[in-house]
Amino acid sequence: MTEPKRVAVLGVGMHPWGKWGRNFVEYGVAAARAALEDAGVAWPQVDLVAGADTIRNGYPGFIAGATFAQALGFTGSRVSSSYAACASGAQAIANARAQILAGLSEVALVVGADTTPKGFFAPVGGNRTDDPDWLRFHLLGATNPTYFGLYARRRMERFGSTAEDFASVKVKNARHGAANPNARYRKQVTIEEVLASPMVADPLHLQEICATSDGGAALILSSVEFAKAHGIKPLVTIDAVSTVTPVYPNTTIEMPNFATDSSAAVPLPKMGFRPSITAAIYEEAGIGPKDLSMAEVYDLSTALELDWYEDLGLCGEGEAEQLLRSGATTVGGRIPVNPSGGLASFGEAIPAQAIAQVVESVLQLRGEAHGRQIEGARVAITANQGLFGHGSSVLLRR
Amino acid sequence: MTGTPAVEGFFDPEAQALIGSKCTGCGTYAFPARQGFCPNPHCGSDTVDLVPLSRTGKIWSYTSASYQPPPPFVPADPFVPFFILAVELAAEGLVVLGQAVAGTDAQDLRVGRDVEVVTDVLFTEDGENKLVWKFKLVEATK
Ligand SMILES: [Zn+2]
Asked: Which of B61, B130, B134 to mutate to test the interface with A (most CBs of A within 10 A)?
C-alpha cells in the first residue's frame, strides 16, 4: 500500500443554512472569512481559490471561484471554478488538493454557496429539447423527488422496509441537527409527525425529502508541511477524494435521465455506481468501512440514507433498517451517520453541500461538535452523488 | 389519438412504441436514441440504427407526482396528481420512465406487474394535442 496523499484542513467556516433571500456571494464570503479566521490565515496568504459553481445565480454563479475572489478582494491568486451539481464541492476540493500535492499551491480556499428558489428545483429556462434535465420535467413531470420515490419504493419491495423505518431516519437526523447552530431546521420530530406530513412522491412525505436552502461553506486547505509549520490545532487531513463516474452499464435510473444504460450487450460492472464511489475512496486511503468513526451521507430522502449505509459497507444489503433501529447510526452509537443533522436538517445548498459535509467531519475529528460530538472520532467519510454521474466522497483523518 | 409529439424523436405515436438506438457493432441499445456514437466504452462504433423498443415491460418501481411539477411541465388546470413508473424492458436491458395513464389506481401498482406503452396526450396547446408515451397496466389474464 502506498502512503495516502494527504493535505491538511487548516480551517473551516459556514454561513448558517436558511432561506435568507440574499445574494449567494454574501454567504460564500461569510463562510470564507470564518474559515480564514479558524485557520489563522490572512486572505492575501491564499494562493488558490477553488470555487464550487451554482447555475442558479447567473454568470457570477458559473464562475464562482473568481466571484468569491473578487468579493474578498483580488490578490492575483490562482483560481478555478467547478460544476458537478451536488458534487461540485468535491470537485473543488479535488482540484485544490491536486494543486497542493503538485506543489502549485500552498494555501487554498475552497468555497461554495447558493441562493435557492422556493419549491422544487427546476431546470434552466428556454426550450431546450436536447437537455435531458429539461426534457424530464417537460415530458414526464419528473422532479428530483420522483427519483427519490422510485428508489424508496424499490427498497420497500426488495427488503420489506416500512414507512416507519424511513421516518425514523428523519427523527434521528432532526435530533442531531437540533444541536447544530448552522442547521436550518432545529426542531425534533416524531415518526407520527413525519408520516402526517403531505405525501410528495409516494412513499415519501414532505418531511422525508430535503428542502432547498441558502447557505455557504468554506475550507482552508494546505500542504501538511505548511500546517505543521503553521502550528494548528489537532491536525486533520484529507487522505483521499473520490470523484469517479459510473461504469457502463449503470442499471440504476439516475437523475436527470429517463432511462438507464442498456445491459443487453455489455456485462454488468462489479458494483453499482454508489458503492463504486466509496470503493474507490477505500482503495485510495487503504482502509475499509470498519475503520470509520462516522459518515456524512447525502440524505436527499430518508430512504436514500439507508441505501448509503449499504453502499458504504456499514452493513450488508438489506440490513440498513436493522442498523438504524439498533441505534448504531445515532450519535453515541457504533457508527454515527449525519451527526450534522444531514440534509434533513439543512436542506440542500447544492455547491456548498459537499463542502459542508467536510466541515462537519473536521469539527467532529477536532472534538468541536458541541452537543453532537462523537467521542474519540478519528476517521470520517463523506459521500454524495451529483446529477449526470458525479461521484463525491472525501476521507478525513485526525 | 390525433396530435403531434410534444418533442419529436422519442416515440412513434402510431406504433405506440419508444424509439431507441441499437449499435450495429455490439448490439447495445440506448434510450433516448444516441446520435452517431455507441455508449459502450469498449465498442467505439459510430453507426447506430433507430429501432422501436419492446412495447411491453415490467414495473421496476413507481412513485407519485402528488404536487404540481414546475415548468417546463405543462399542468392540467386544475392539476391532477399522477403516477410515474420505471419500467424494465427485458430484451433491451433498459429501465425507462414514463407517466402512468390517467385513472391508474395506486392499489393496482406493484413491482413486477406488466405494462404496455401507449400514446397519450401530455397537454393541449392552441387546440392541438401534444403527445407523449405513457404506461398502461396490462390486465392480468385469468
Ligand atoms: Zn456498440
From this structure: B61
B65 contact A CB<8A? yes
Helix (H), strand (E), coil (C) string for A230-247: HCCCCCCEEEEEECCCCC
State percent of chain A over pLDDT 90.
92
ipTM over 0.95: yes
**Gap from CA of A105 to ligand 1 centroid (Å):** 42
Of B39, B60, B63, the CB nearest to A149: B63
DSSP reduced 3-state for A69: helix
Bridge partners for B99 per DSSP? B84, B134
| Lowest-confidence segment of A203-212, A230-239, A310-319, B44-53 by average pLDDT | A230-239
CATH assignment, A132-209+238-397: 3.40.47.10
A59 burial via Cβ count (<10 Å: 0-12, 13-18, 19+): exposed
Q: Does domain A7-119+215-229 have CATH number 3.40.630.30?
A: no
Q: Report chain B residues whose CB lies below 8 A from the CB of A141.
A: 65, 69, 73, 75, 82, 84, 99
Domain ranges of chain B: 4-137
What's the pLDDT tens digit per position in A235-255? 999 999 999 999 999 999 999
Give the pTM. Answer: 0.95
- Location of each CATH 3.40.47.10 domain in chain A: 7-119+215-229, 132-209+238-397
What's chain A's average pLDDT?
96
